[in-house]
Specification:
The chain has 144 residues and is an all-alpha fold. The chain has a single domain, classed as Up-down Bundle (Ferritin), CATH 1.20.1260.
């Protein structure tokens, strides 16, 4: 059965933005985990490490939809400065919130409109996951 190509679609661009964002989050959260360990906050370091693995899984799923070639995108990405754990948690909360509340719902809507229902469902599912990440970071910040 022939599946519809994503080449040249807005959904392809959105997948690339999502892939790049998730890939950056993996590294950012690992940096944040290192800071938390240095601050002797092992529990928070574990949260950052666990969520970094989940973000890596998201990136892997997005990557499976690419069909090769180059995808040109224009996007803004957070240039978060790695500082102390409190600031790192606040930045993480902000990033996760933007992803689940705006970015992924917008990407889901575009994918549905373009007829990529499986991709739309993935964006919807991952938005829920990002909300969970935000909640975990909020809880860690409250307990700090």
């Amino acid at each position: 059965m022939m599946t519809k190509s994503i080449k040249g679609t807005k959904t392809e661009k959105n997948l690339m933005i999502a892939f790049a964002s998730e890939s950056m989050a993996v590294n950012r959260y690992l940096y944040f985990a290192k800071v938390a360990k240095e601050e002797e906050l092992a529990g928070i370091a574990d949260i950052f490490t666990k969520i970094s693995r989940e973000e890596k899984g998201h990136a892997s799923v997005f990557n499976k939809f690419f069909e090769g070639g180059a995808v040109e995108v224009t996007a803004s990405f957070p240039a978060v400065k790695v500082t102390d754990t409190k600031s790192n948690l606040e930045a993480s909360i902000k990033g996760e919130n933007a992803t689940w509340s705006t970015r992924y719902p917008d990407f889901e809507q575009t994918a549905r409109a373009e007829g990529f229902l499986k991709i739309a469902d993935i964006f919807k599912s991952f938005a829920n996951s990002e909300k969970s990440h935000e909640d975990k970071f909020k809880k860690a910040l409250e307990e700090l």
